[in-house]
Amino acid sequence: MGVPKALGDRASLRAPSTALRAVHELFVAGRVDPSYLDTTPIRPVVAESWRRSLAKGVDPDGEGASSSSVTLRLARMRDAHPLASALPVIRKLLVDDAADSGVVVAVTSADGTLLWVEGDPEACRKAESMNFVPGADWSERHVGTNAPGTALALDRELQIRSSEHFARVAQPWNCTAAPVHDPATGVLLGAIDLTGGPEVASGQALALVRATAVAVENHLALLRLTEPRAHARAETSAHLRVLGAHRPRWQFTDESGERRITALTPRHADILVLLTQHPEGLSADHLAMMLDDKDLDVVTVRAEMSRLRRVIEPVVVGSRPYRLLHPVDSDVSEVFAAMRAGDVGSALSAYTGALLPQSMSPAIARLRTELGTSLRTAVIASGDLGLLSRWLELPEGRDDRAGWRLLHDGAGAGSIGQAQARGHLAGLDLDLA
After folding, report:
1. 99-106 long-range contacts, Cβ below 8 Å, gap at least 24?
2. Beta pairing, strands 174-181 & 188-196
3. Is 272 helix (H, G, I), strand (E, B) or coil?
4. GO terms for biological process (predicted)?
C-alpha cells in the first residue's frame, strides 16, 4: 500500500535531515520570514505546522512536553475514555510486535494528553527524556510539530520525520499517527502513534497505523451493537452545542440508534440553553422575559415552543412549566462540570468560544459572562502558563491585557513566549493610544 497523495506532499523533494536542520535553525531564530519556508523543499504540512508552532510561542529548546493538568487524575481519565475498551485491539496489532523493535506505541486523548505509552522497554526509557510519558501534553499547541499533536490539530493521519519536529529534543525520533473517531458521531476521540527510528516513517508504518485506527473504530461500532444497554447508559439521549462562533447544533439519537445532527435557529438555541439551565421548568411569561425583556410576548413564545418540539424530537418538552423531559447534555454543562471537579484543562478544552455570541437575550448574556469569567478566573488561579496561553488564543483572550501581562511576566526571559506576549501588549497599547 503506497503513501496517499495527500500525505506525500513533495515526496520527491524531501530534504535530508542536515538541510532541514539548517532551515529549522534559521526559522526558529527569526532570521528568515515565515514565507521563506515556501521556497524550501520542506513539505507544506510541516511548514504550516512550524508556522503555527512559532505563532503559539512554542519553545524549540524546551525539554519536551510538560505534564498535563490531568496527570493526577490519569487513572480515572483512562478508565472513562472511550478508547480504553479498544486497548486489546491496539496491543494485538501494534504493541505485541513492538517489544524488541525500538518502537514506542502511544494512545492520546483528543486534547493531546498521552494516555498509554507502551512498546520496546528501552525505547520507552529513552522517550522519557523528552517526557513522552502518560499524562504529558503532546498537543501541537504545546510542543509544536509532532505526529500525534499535528494529526489531532489537522484531524488527519500523517508522518513527521526527525528534523521536521519543531522541538529540538524530539528531532532524533520519527513518528506516524492517525486520529480515531467515534463511529456514530464522528467526534474526534484521540490518536494512535508510532514513535521510533527511520522505519517508523515508512509507508508500511503509515498503512499499519491507519489500519489500526480503522480496526479500533470498527471495534467501537461493534460494541454499540453487542452492548446497546451499556451504551445507552453511558451517554445522554441528546447533546446541545452552543459554544463558539459556529451555528448552534442539536445532536440526538433517533429510533434506529443513528446519531443525527440538526442546526438550530438562534431563538431555539436560546430556549434550549435556558431549559437546560432550569430543569425545574420555566413559565411562558418567565421565558419571554429571559429571551427579551421588552418586545417578546407569551403568544410568540408558545409558537416558538411548538416549532421547537418538532425540531428536537424524540426529546419531549413538557408544558406548564416548560421543561425538558429527557436528559440533555451540553458543552456549557461540560465546562461547568470540569471546573467543579477542579479540572481546568478539560474545562478549557470543552470551551470552544463564547456562549451564543450573537444572542441578544439578557439571560443568555448573563450566562455567557458568568461562564467566560469563571473559566478565565480558574485559568489564572491555576498558575499554569500553558493553560493561560490557550485561554489567550481564544477570541475573548485577544484583548485580555492583564492575561497577556501575566504570560509576559511568567515566561522565561528572552523566550519566544515572552516575545510574543510583549508584541501583543504593544499592539493592545497602540489600539488604546
Report:
1. 101/196, 102/196, 102/197, 103/194, 103/195, 103/196, 103/197, 103/199, 103/200, 104/132, 104/194, 104/195, 104/196, 105/192, 105/193, 105/194, 106/132, 106/138, 106/148, 106/192, 106/193, 106/195
2. antiparallel
3. helix
4. phosphorelay signal transduction system; regulation of DNA-templated transcription
Residue 61 amino acid letter: D
Q: pLDDT tens digits for the chain (433 residues)?
A: 333 333 333 333 345 678 888 898 888 888 888 888 988 888 999 999 998 888 888 888 876 665 555 455 677 678 778 899 999 999 999 988 777 789 999 999 988 999 999 999 999 999 999 999 998 889 998 899 999 999 999 999 999 999 999 999 999 999 999 999 988 777 789 999 999 999 999 999 999 999 999 999 999 988 877 765 444 444 446 889 999 988 999 987 665 566 778 899 999 999 999 999 998 899 998 999 999 877 788 888 889 988 998 888 777 788 889 998 877 889 999 999 989 888 898 899 889 899 999 999 999 999 999 999 999 999 999 998 889 989 998 988 889 999 999 988 888 788 888 888 888 889 988 887 6
- Pair 58, 143: CB distance under 8 Å: yes
The size of the chain, in residues, is 433
| Secondary structure of residue 407 in the 3-state scheme | helix
Question: % helix / strand / coil in the chain, to the nearest 5?
Answer: 55, 15, 30
Q: Look at the block and give the residue holding cell 474545562.
A: 347
For the record, the C-alpha cell of 164 comes out as 521536521
Cell numbers standing for residue 266: 438562534
Nearest to 404 by CA among 414, 413, 393, 412: 393
Helix/strand/coil for 330: strand
Q: How far apart are CA 205 and CA 193, in angstroms?
A: 10
- The radius of gyration of the chain from alpha carbons, rounded to an integer in Å, stands at 24
- Closest by CA position to 144, among listed 237, 51, 72, 234: 51
Residues of the chain with CATH 3.30.450.40: 62-226
* Residue 155 identity: D
